[in-house]
């Protein structure tokens, strides 16, 4: 299981649970057997919901003899099934990819160095772009009007922030994409969507790190997440951080990179499961750094061009004595996690992990970097809130249809 430690919400109406399960991908089949048969399978390991169905996942056989009450109890129980959480992860991953793509495609969303303030809304100011300040020096803002309009400022407005806020915005934008604008505006109070320094968020009602975050899932080295499968990574936040202390930093603005995971290839997921998470890759990062120290770079973006872009002219010009070192670095970076773990980092957009490891060899050549998942509540509190919201919406629609007469489909 991904960490559900309290019961899933009761339905506002029994009729609402089955449509939600079917929307998530559960296939409900009739059977002549006396008892139900539930086969959740392993959807977290699959590439897509269709792939899960091809493997027979997310299938429940319901006895024809079951009445409405017994069926309702069975369906409510499925909300707590670990496979339901994995089915939700497919939707979460799609939402994270949409959010990251929108943020990446906005040329007006740029990066500010830490000393210039965490968030800047330019000449138009914060209020004109849907935000209100509650802490000085750009350290804390909350939506001033609708929540969706506030996120839209980062999709299409002119904003500056460092990558920590970039991660927060990507996390909140994922929720916007998951709920849709109407649901996002309805289900969250403005203070729950606060952005700013991480310390600032702890003193707010933030759903990320504040009072309304609820139950966290802690898995820094991705040991449990790797065991569960690729979909368990979708939308999860994390960071790449310097290992040696700050005396070894040359570029303070690249001391860490905050990210949100947007995709994991099958090969990368298998490698993470085989190696038990990120600790193995911290060791590989250190070995890459040790090799880079024997290859003094020349010019801007040297290792980025050499290792990630694989610039043919740069490679051809490499002194013969350094070519065995390059071969070793290529072999290490050939691990599928470096090419198949896709992360969104502001302002670099969506790129594979290997890009960032190569880039950081240029920016801070005197320290290796480690990789961690951050505390998150995607699989706990936010999952339960999403279920509750879908059931409430269904109940409201059902009541409306009952009053008006007719039928409706939950698209």
Task: Give a quick set of tags describing it.
411 residues; alpha+beta; three-stranded mixed β-sheet; 16 helices; 14 strands; disordered N terminus
Describe the structure.
The chain has helices at residues 14-24, 49-54, 68-78, 82-104, 147-156, 163-187, 198-202, 223-228, 266-275, 279-292, 302-308, 312-316, 323-333, 336-340, 353-363, 381-404, and strands at 27-31, 37-39, 59-63, 109-111, 119-120, 131-135, 140-143, 159-161, 195-196, 237-242, 256-264, 341-345, 349-352, 369-373. It is α+β, with helices and mostly antiparallel strands and 411 residues long. The strands form four sheets. Strands 13-12-11-10-14 form a five-stranded antiparallel sheet, sandwiched between helices. Strands 1-3-2 form a three-stranded mixed sheet, with no helix packed on it. β6 and β7 (140-143) form a beta hairpin. α10 runs antiparallel to α13. The longest helix has 25 residues, at 163-187. It is globular and about 75 Å long. The chain starts with 13 loop residues before the first helix and ends in a 7-residue tail after the last helix. Mean pLDDT is 92; it is low at 1-12 and 407-411.
């Amino acid at each position: 299981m991904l960490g559900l430690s309290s019961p899933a919400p009761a339905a506002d109406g029994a009729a609402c649970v089955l449509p939600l399960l079917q929307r998530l991908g559960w296939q409900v089949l009739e059977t002549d057997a006396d008892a139900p048969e539930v086969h959740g399978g392993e959807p977290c390991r699959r590439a897509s919901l269709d792939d899960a169905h091809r493997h027979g996942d997310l299938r429940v056989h319901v006895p024809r003899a079951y009445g409405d009450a017994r069926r309702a109890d069975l369906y409510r129980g499925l909300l707590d099934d670990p496979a339901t959480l994995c089915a939700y992860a497919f939707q979460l991953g799609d939402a994270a990819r949409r959010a990251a793509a929108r943020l990446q495609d906005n040329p007006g969303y740029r990066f500010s160095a830490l000393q210039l303030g965490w968030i800047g809304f330019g000449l138009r100011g914060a209020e004109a772009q849907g935000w209100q300040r509650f802490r000085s020096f750009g350290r804390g803002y909350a939506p001033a009007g609708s929540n969706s309009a506030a996120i839209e400022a980062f999709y299409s407005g002119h904003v500056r922030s460092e990558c920590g806020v970039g991660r927060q915005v990507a996390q909140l934008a994922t929720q916007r994409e998951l709920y849709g604008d109407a649901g996002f505006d309805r289900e969250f109070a403005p203070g729950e969507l606060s952005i700013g320094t991480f310390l600032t968020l702890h003193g707010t009602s933030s759903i990320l790190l504040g009072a309304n975050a609820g139950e966290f899932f802690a898995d820094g080295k991705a040991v449990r997440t790797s065991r569960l499968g690729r979909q368990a990574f979708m939308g999860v936040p994390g960071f790449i951080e310097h290992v040696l202390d700050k005396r070894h930093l040359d570029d303070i603005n690249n001391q860490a990179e905050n990210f949100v995971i947007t995709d994991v290839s099958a090969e990368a997921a298998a490698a993470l499961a085989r190696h038990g998470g990120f600790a193995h890759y911290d060791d590989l990062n250190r070995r890459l750094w040790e090799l880079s120290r024997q290859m003094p770079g020349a010019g801007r973006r040297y290792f980025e061009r050499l290792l990630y872009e694989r610039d043919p002219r740069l490679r051809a010009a490499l002194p013969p004595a350094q070519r065995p070192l390059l071969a070793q670095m290529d072999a290490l970076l050939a691990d599928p996690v470096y090419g198949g773990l896709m992360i969104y980092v502001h302002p670099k957009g969506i790129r594979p992990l290997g890009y960032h490891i190569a880039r950081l060899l240029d920016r801070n050549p005197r320290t290796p970097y480690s990789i961690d998942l951050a505390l998150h509540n995607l699989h706990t509190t936010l999952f339960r809130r999403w279920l509750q919201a879908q059931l409430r919406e269904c109940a409201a629609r059902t009541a409306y249809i009952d009053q008006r007469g007719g039928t409706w489909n939950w698209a």
